[in-house]
Amino acid sequence: MADSGVKDSDGTRLNDLKVFKSAGRGFWSDVSDADWNDWRWQLKHRITTPEQLGRLMPTLTPEEIAGAKLANHKLALAITPYFFNLINPSDENCPIRLQVIPRVQETHTAPWEMTDPCGEDSHSPVPGLVHRYPDRVLFLVTDRCAAYCRYCTRSRLVSNATGYDFHPEFDKQIAYIAAHPEIRDVLLSGGDPLLFSDDKLEHLLSRLRAIPHVEFVRIGTRIPIFLPQRITPELCAMLKKYHPLFMSVHSNHPRELTTEVREAVGRLAYAGIPLGNQSVLLRHVNDDPVIAKAHVQKLLMCRVRPYYLYQCDLIAGSAHLRASVRRGLEIMERLRGHTTGYAVPTYVIDAPGGGGKVPVAPEYVLSRNHDRVLIRNYEGKLFEYPEAKDGTPLCDAPRSIEEPALA
Ligand code: SF4
């Protein structure tokens, strides 16, 4: 679709969505600044019970009331006061609300849904370590998060609501990495590694850094979005000692990118940590090309590079949140060429059962044979590119030229 198809109202919406706002204090206006900005205070005051939720949000729907009551048998309910303030209580389909307030639909499992859709448990040589790709591992450090996303791929283990009893054994995980010289990249995830104290996280990072073949460490976290107060100057000063260290944050909607988040990720960027964002394509949250575009552009304004857009995994109880692949492709079509290349993530489907990430993209190569490639651009215009036989130049250019001819 060409830009000419974009309506003026889309442009106004886009700009409105890109405005940075503070989450504000909401119900917590009498709390001191020191407490509000203290990440431990935020964690201690999370909304975790249906009663608390009902008191703060009298507009809960019957589906949400039932979902909140059942949550602790599937994936716990937890929302930080900061993130709760982003919810619009008068909008049943508020994109923030959909992500963190349980609905009774979560208890329905479609036939194709799974508890471990990425097949992590079957690629786990020691508890808490997933070795699926040749040169890298996923190192799960905890089953706790600051808040719980209702579509979480690891809901079988995070929050321990299903009794998975996740007990990572760091010694065994680190010994496995040390014994496998092919592992050059370690991704710390969970649960959320940034829930650890600075000291505990540093202990882990320093042990990984002591392994000579570990070239590169990554942290996957949603803390900068759920709990930006955690990104303290002290944390950043500690992290910067362990470069090259990359961080993948997880934001799904432009409204999550508040002034607090912009400052938090700014501190990480100033510590030299390259930042990428992983979004999950979710129905009524971000399956709209204007919202998706505002989101990726706003991420760049926060110094965060959109990295992956995930098709929602086939996690049990997520059918009500899953958007179609058709919609995902439409979004990619509306991004590529229509905005900065840096803003365009790679859209992937994690192949069900453990096949790894498979990129999916609109078709730009329309046909290809031994002497030409037919391509189309973002405006739908067609172009031919002459193909060369491998290793053979397209035509014989002269290798030298006489001096007089040059003149
Ligand atoms: S923060 Fe990540 S691990 Fe935690 S619930 Fe959300 S998606 Fe799952």
Which sequence of SSEs, written as H and E, runs from N to C? Answer: HHHHHHHEEHEHEHHEHEHEHEEEEEH
Number of strands: 12
The rough form would be described as: globular
Could you tell me the mean pLDDT? 94
Bound molecules: iron/sulfur cluster
Strand order of the largest sheet: 1-2-3-4-5-6-7-8-9
What is the radius of gyration? 24 Å
Which stretches are poorly predicted, pLDDT < 50 over at least 5 residues?
none
Q: Which structural class do you get from the secondary structure elements?
A: alpha/beta
Strand content: 15-25%
Distance between the termini: 49 Å
Number of helices: 15
**Helical content, roughly?**
25-40%
Q: Strand count, sense and closure of the main sheet?
A: 9 strands, mixed
Overview of the molecule:
This protein has 407 residues and is an alpha/beta fold. The chain has 15 helices and twelve strands. The longest helix is centred in the C-terminal third of the chain and has 13 residues, at 289-301. The relative contact order is 0.11. The chain binds iron/sulfur cluster. Iron/sulfur cluster binds next to loops.
Question: What's this model, at a glance?
Answer:
The protein has 407 residues and is α/β, with parallel strands linked by helices. The protein has 15 helices and twelve strands.
From the structure above, extract its key features.
407 residues; alpha/beta; 9-stranded mixed beta sheet; 3-stranded antiparallel beta sheet; 15 helices; 12 strands; binds iron/sulfur cluster
